[in-house]
Amino acid sequence: MALRAVRSLAILSNPLRTYSTSGPLVNVSINEKTGIATATLQRPPVNSLNLELLTELCTTLEQLEKNKSRGLILTSSSNTVFSAGLDIYEMYKPNMDRYKQFWTTLQQTWINLYGSSYPTVAVVNGHAPAGGCLLALSCEYRIMLNNFTIGLNETKLGMIAPTWFAASMRNAIGTRQTELALITGNLFTTDEALKIGLVDEVVQSKNEALEKAGKFFDKFKRIPPHARTMTKTSLRGADIQALVKSRNEEMNKLTAFINDPKLQEAIGMYLESLKQKQNK
Ligand SMILES: CCCCCCCCCCC/C=C/C(=O)SCCNC(=O)CCNC(=O)[C@H](O)C(C)(C)COP(=O)(O)OP(=O)(O)OC[C@H]1O[C@@H](n2cnc3c(N)ncnc32)[C@H](O)[C@@H]1OP(=O)(O)O
């Protein structure tokens, strides 16, 4: 908390610096006038989150923090998928060293995004199941285009959403709705998501979403950044601390979980069903 306060106070005195962190999987552009960064996920066909994409995103978020970013818009280069969630191939017959690196990077990406000192908006311009929904939930504000689905559907896949996935959802829609959403593994339509507060606004086009995102950032023009950041930390800090404390324990459980032959069989069948869908 104290460190964050010092860092956020520094925002008041440091001028904005320009920098480039674009990589092949995450394009980063900075609006010179507003200082707002846009990170666009670009791993076709569905922006599934593999180790390489997560590493780029994690580094981008670290750079934005270091450079005292004014804000971040997280979006997708696809017209139909924001992110299909974790890359299922990272969990299917995994190499255990890579698997551990993958989870460590996912955890750190969440810590950086959920706990960022700068304001964050997800422009959800396509489907956002599971890990895709997690990314959106980790932002402060979600603007979604119509006719897509979003939710933490892990139970439908025979998996469990980790506690910090659940905490991110609870932060947005409260305990009751989170419990219902998680046990049913529901994927919400855009309108259903709006109704329960899983997204904040529904729009018809990406341009409209970007315009609304600008209005969200404008709200902070007259708010001292340190007050904003400390308030965010007071609301989200406990969730982050809970993961920081249980990181190793979680890794041990995940390792045992992923090596269960029944789970591997289920993942294999799920991958097959996704492939079959394409053949229809
Ligand atoms: C304390 C410790 C104990 C806790 C234990 C925790 C246990 C682990 C927790 C795991 C949490 C998991 C989180 C996840 O994110 S799992 C991933 C869930 N995601 C999904 O189920 C989405 C699957 N995809 C889709 O529904 C559709 O693809 C989508 C709607 C997103 C897009 O549809 P579209 O028709 O546009 O595209 P296709 O379905 O045809 O897909 C195109 C190709 O992409 C492949 N694909 C899709 N999704 C994924 C994915 N998530 N990973 C890898 N690959 C994916 C798909 O197979 C197609 O491939 P081919 O072109 O090769 O056929």
Automatic annotation (TrEMBL):
<keyword id="KW-0007">Acetylation</keyword>
<comment type="function">
    <text>Key enzyme of fatty acid beta-oxidation. Able to isomerize both 3-cis (3Z) and 3-trans (3E) double bonds into the 2-trans (2E) form in a range of enoyl-CoA species, with a preference for (3Z)-enoyl-CoAs over (3E)-enoyl-CoAs. The catalytic efficiency of this enzyme is not affected by the fatty acyl chain length.</text>
</comment>
<protein>
    <recommendedName>
        <fullName>Enoyl-CoA delta isomerase 1, mitochondrial</fullName>
    </recommendedName>
</protein>
<keyword id="KW-0276">Fatty acid metabolism</keyword>
<dbReference type="InterPro" id="IPR001753">
    <property type="entry name" value="Enoyl-CoA_hydra/iso"/>
</dbReference>
<dbReference type="GO" id="GO:0006635">
    <property type="term" value="P:fatty acid beta-oxidation"/>
</dbReference>
<keyword id="KW-0413">Isomerase</keyword>
<comment type="pathway">
    <text>Lipid metabolism; fatty acid beta-oxidation.</text>
</comment>
<keyword id="KW-0496">Mitochondrion</keyword>
<dbReference type="GO" id="GO:0004165">
    <property type="term" value="F:delta(3)-delta(2)-enoyl-CoA isomerase activity"/>
</dbReference>
<dbReference type="GO" id="GO:0005759">
    <property type="term" value="C:mitochondrial matrix"/>
</dbReference>
<comment type="subunit">
    <text>Homotrimer.</text>
</comment>
<keyword id="KW-0809">Transit peptide</keyword>
<keyword id="KW-0443">Lipid metabolism</keyword>
<dbReference type="InterPro" id="IPR029045">
    <property type="entry name" value="ClpP/crotonase-like_dom_sf"/>
</dbReference>
<dbReference type="Pfam" id="PF00378">
    <property type="entry name" value="ECH_1"/>
</dbReference>
